[in-house]
Write a structure and sequence with these properties.
It comes from Actinoalloteichus fjordicus. It contains 5 helices and 7 strands, in the order H-E-E-E-E-H-E-E-H-H-H-E. The protein is α+β, with helices and mostly antiparallel strands and 124 residues long. It has one domain: Pnp Oxidase, Chain A (Roll). A hairpin with a 2-residue loop joins strand 5 and strand 6.
Length: 124
């Protein structure tokens, strides 16, 4: 399994936003979406504010592959589903990284709905 380099982790973690592009069944890219990203150790995670019904999240279900861009890093990734075992840690990461935003916005990304749509980004 491929891993993120320390430089990639630092650059993506340092970026406020990440562009995620999912793939259709035929492998063609969908339109990129801008989302928030957090780091936990050597892993990167994203969530859908609108939960599992979000268009971009549903797009990850088709092939579990796509592309991300943030902090000057442009990488193909595999989307890996995450259980609820990391919810508290990832909530803390989101609250810390995005604390300068209104509490209502941060509350959206730490809601039960968003938690249900948590994905680990694994480089390919």
């Amino acid at each position: 399994m491929t891993t993120w380099t320390p430089d990639e982790l630092a650059r993506i973690d340092g970026a406020d936003e990440l562009q995620v592009t999912t793939l259709r069944g035929d492998g063609s890219p969908r339109s990129p979406r801008t989302i928030w990203v957090v780091r936990d150790g050597d892993d990167l995670y994203v969530r859908s504010v609108y939960g599992v019904t979000s268009v971009w999240y549903r797009g990850t279900r088709t092939r579990h592959e796509g592309r991300v861009q943030a902090g000057g890093v442009d990488r193909d990734v595999t989307f890996v589903d995450v259980g609820d075992e990391l919810d508290e840690r990832l909530d803390a990461e989101y609250r810390s990284k995005y604390r300068r935003y209104a509490a209502s916005i941060v509350d959206s990304i730490t809601s039960a709905e968003a938690r249900a749509a948590t994905i680990r980004l694994v480089p390919r």
